[in-house]
Give the backbone structure.
Amino acid sequence: MLAGEQWRLFFETGRFDKNHDEDKTTFAAVIGAANRVQMCRWQVAGQLESWIGNRANEFRDTVTRSTLDPETKHMLHVINRLGMWFSRREITMKATGETVPAAVRALARSIMRQVMRRHRRPNPRRVSMRLDHRAACLQEPNEASQGGRVGWWVNLSTDDQGSEDRRASSDL
């Protein structure tokens, strides 16, 4: 669900948004508390940004190897640098102040679609778990250090509010 939301944002705005939270209640009902939704959204957006970054590199290589005239190549490189392959609004080149023609923007869209078609989109189901301080925190053991063999406790939060936190020891 979060990946679908991020792709929609990408094609509408040209960017992924790690902090986009249009429908809190639906995601919180499916995934859990809002902090878990935010951690998942950050992971999904990071994975998608990385994938798009690799496609931007391929776009650059495709344009560089092409037989287009230098002015068109320059405009395509500007579009790539701005990440505005699918933008419908006008793009102004900063150095000269001229507007990129609609035909060049359409060419950029076409090249990026071709580059994206060569690779499968990333699967967010296989993303590795990355937790922050809201899901788990490290603590030194107060009582049960097991004769100095346990250096730290991991205090994990649970879905049930007010329930006893689960603890795991680690020889860190």
Observations:
- Residues 164-172 have pLDDT under 50 and may be disordered.
- Residues 136-170 form one domain.
- The chain has five helices and three strands.
